[in-house]
Write a structure and sequence with these properties.
The chain is α/β, with parallel strands linked by helices and 139 residues long. It has a single domain, classed as Response regulator (Rossmann fold). The protein is built from five helices and seven strands. The chain has a five-stranded parallel sheet, sandwiched between helices. A two-stranded antiparallel sheet has the order 1-2.
């Protein structure tokens, strides 16, 4: 069954760019395909190293970032902290994603500057609406 996605991945006549950071390839691709169907431009990174290699290139600057918490080389909190410490990246909304919502993780994410914290699984349409909201209202 196909889910009809609203075409909401466009602001001011250009596609919203989302960087999807997740070490699980299938999850990264699933989220990426979902966002592409909704009109978003998607960049993917599977490690902290890949994330910062992508972010070092100005043409890859995303409008919003989604970041898994459980990552092998650098966890999502470390990635978030590094993004928020960089004056060139600090204003990008970062939405933390997790399949294993640990007690205190949401508070820690907020303290480190996360825009939102979402537990997997999530509704595709709700997720798209959240991304759209934070691109229009980053704070």
């Amino acid at each position: 069954m196909k889910i009809p996605f609203p075409r909401r991945g466009i602001v001011a006549n250009h596609p919203i760019t989302v960087l999807v950071i997740d070490d699980e390839t299938h999850m990264r691709r699933l989220i990426g395909r979902m966002l592409q169907k909704a009109g978003f431009r998607v960049l993917e990174a599977g490690t902290g190293k890949q994330t910062f290699a992508l972010l070092s290139q100005p043409e890859n600057r995303p409008d919003v970032i989604t970041c898994d918490i459980s990552m092998p080389d650098m966890d999502g909190f470390e990635i978030l902290e590094k993004i928020k410490a960089d004056p060139e990246l600090a204003d990008i909304p970062v939405i933390m994603l997790t399949a294993m919502g640990q007690v205190g993780d949401a508070n820690r994410a907020k303290e480190l500057g996360a825009t939102d914290y979402i537990t997997k699984p999530f509704s595709a349409i709700s997720f798209i609406e959240i991304l759209q909201h934070y691109v229009k209202n980053p704070s």
